[in-house]
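Need tokens for this chain, all 339 residues.
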Amino acid sequence: MAEAAAEVDLGHLLAFDPTHHLPSLPSSREELVEKCLEKGTELVQAIADSLFNLAATEDSDGPVVKLPPPTTKLPREKHLPKPKPPTKWETFAKAKGIKKRKTEKVVWDEQTGTWKRRYGYDRIDDDKDVPIIESKATDEVGEDPFAKRRADKKRRVAKQEKNQLQNLKEAAKMGALPSHVQLAATALPITGTHAQPKKMSKDELGNVAGLASTATASGGKFDKKLPGEKKAKHDHKYRKFLPVAVGSGMGLTEKEQTDRVLNKLISSSSHEILNIDKAITMYNVKKEKKRSNQKADDSSSPSKKMKPNKKIQKKGPKKGSSDNKKQKSKGPSNKSKSR
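Here are the structure tokens for all 339 residues:
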């Protein structure tokens, strides 16, 4: 019954049930969310069933379905734009029966022998491309024709800007300003409600003067003061720098501050610096590896077993024998001396 009552609009991929209602109020928010999810699942399933009933064409990405035009009219977020009032030229052209003709953007330039734009950059008959200007009988003597041509161009541009502002004013009265102009309507003299510049108070002027005086490299310390100029106010706190040399008093503050930060870091991450259990395990593993390597070396070298463990030492001469020899050699000489 719920699927039959659901209305599906495939143009917007939309499905809704106008007859849906809850038989009883849910006792909790979780129950309400669960019922809404159940109903939403049914509506999504109805959209899927309607899509699979349409004729599909095969593509490299899979079956493709062309959606029908939407049947539900969704409400518009913004109001309908109002029609713009006609400009002065449009009013004049309509009164005279002048119709707008479509002109080509590119025109052949005979002077340069190339195709150029009709308007804008690198256009035809640009002032920079005209080396010679023919004089006329109405020209004044001594007048620069190039300067006159530039002045006429500035005059035309100023007149065009004035006409554009006037057209925008007329559109503002009708409430049909373009969207990109509505943002700047308060800053431009279009609507006639341009706010007058606010007069600055004495304190504001003093603040501006203080900012200007301290905007130098020295912060205004070596700048000359005007007569009657006051010192700029400093509302914020001055920064205090610790001394570089360590000594008594303030000199120990930096050391104490550094020690405090290091102690805090070490205490917070002491478990990451040294893991005692892990260190003991690694030591035991290394010790066992060393023992196993020594046993392997002993078993692999059989020649070491054949060698005696005791070291052979050479016997030295006895002390008594050397003394007797010395005495025997000295004996005859003593006798000869006594004789």
